[in-house]
Glycoside hydrolase family 71 protein (Hohenbuehelia grisea), 445 residues
Amino acid sequence: MSLFFITQAFVLAAMLIAGARGIPMNATAESAASNSLPRLVVAHFMVGNTYPYSVNDWAKDIALAHSKGIDGFALNAGRDDWQPARVADAYTAAANSGTGFKLFLSLDMTSLGCSNSGDAGVLRNYVTSYASHPNQLLYDGRVLVSTFSGEGCTFGTGNTNTGWQNTIKNGLPGVFFLPSFFIDPATFGSYPVVDGFFNWNGGWPMGNYDINFDSDNGYLNNLGGRAYMGAVSPWFFTHYGPDTFNKNWIYRGDDWLFAQRWEELIANRNRVDIAEVITWNDYGESHYIGPIAGAQPMSQAWVNGFDHQGWLDLNQYYLTAYKTGSYPAITKDRVFLWARLYPAAANAPDSVPKPDHADWTQDFLWAVVLMTAPADVTLTCGPSTQTTHVQAGLSKLKLPLTATCDVSSVVSRNGGQVLSFRPDGFHFNTNPPSYNFNAFVAASP
């Protein structure tokens, strides 16, 4: 999805607490196509960022993702002639892992050709090469295949549905086709080749408002009994100038986007068959939750020094609730912190202008805390400090960032300090060196 072209279409909130173990379900939900199948959580993986990868590099990512409860990777494959070899290495590493970790193709149709029948060969070869692989993700007994875009692909036929039918279904092992087409859900009935739909843009609010489930409902109300894959993402910022990819905007990540989005999916888990985390390693758009590795797509200016692995454990907490129907027991006090390091309104000496929609975000430290028992949580950055009494369970807190400062947090209980977390490098600077709207993320051990 590294070149995607989606149309881009405040509050001093009080603490929100979600400590209950049971998960409320949407009583009015339509039944999903595969309600009897287990809920899965996969992560979108940009093969385009793996040029220097070896099988061992894939093995490291697979081991880490598996250890955090992720079931598989959606391999975003594009047109580069070296990418099929990296996909093969990924399947080799998955097989060697002995974990049962699954893989499936997410065909990047903003990169791969699809205008004539000859373009179908690459896609069909991917399906036939891995259909019987032990680590190929099968859904409802069929080879799961997804896409990024592809709504305009005809493969030389008269329409999109026939083109995909000829390419992804006819003469192939059984395929469960679950694409991300950027189309009006009201037209879903025109695509009988599709077995389910992936709502890519459901992962972020498309305007200056909090994330909500409206986009999902638009899909769900038009599926006609087919499967639904929902997106969850922690952030979005891309900063390419006209001389490169010419992508320079943010989506609104305020108000604990990652946590809020997961809570929506969990509350509607009887309607959402698969949750796809966007992404494991898309550095160019700043929504990676895996380690910074491989070959960055000219994104070093806003990615280097901004590790996001602090989100991995928070992701594990939520995905456990999504997959099982119950939030896991909290056995250790944890603090998760993230924020931009520079004021949104500040000017910077940057050759690329301030990103579009910069006014959609406010200068706050966002915190999610997991507490084993009631406690007092103090967040501090320079003159801004706040102490909140929270209950056992998960609580969401925020702190205004107003001056150059270092972020710290303290958890106290029964008159004593039980946790002090001052992340290295978490320094808010009111004089930004560039327009970097990426998130700095940290999690206590």
Notes: The chain is about 20% helix and 25% strand. The domain at 35-324 is CATH 3.20.20.80 (TIM Barrel). The chain has two domains: 35-324, 334-443. The radius of gyration is 22 Å.
